[in-house]
Design a protein that fits this description.
Radius of gyration: 15 Å
Number of helices: 3
Oligomer: single chain
Order of helices and strands: HHH
Helix content: 55-70%
Strand content: under 5%
Largest sheet: none
Shape: elongated
Length: about 60
């Protein structure tokens, strides 16, 4: 099987994407977890702002 062949299987693809997305969210949110306003917003809203924060962090 060629490299990445496991991604052809729907279950493997989904698992990979879920794990990879979780890692990306953690990478963005962990550095600002101590900020009081971040501690007071629901998890769903934190996840919604990740794309904006990651864009900002990449362009510093």
């Amino acid at each position: 099987m060629a490299n990445g062949g496991f991604l052809g299987k729907p279950v493997s693809s989904r698992r990979y994407l879920i794990e990879h997305t979780h890692e990306q969210v953690s990478d963005v949110l962990n550095p600002i977890a101590h900020v009081e306003v971040m501690q007071n917003i629901p998890s769903q809203e934190k996840h919604a702002i990740v794309p904006y924060l990651s864009h900002f962090l990449c362009h510093q």
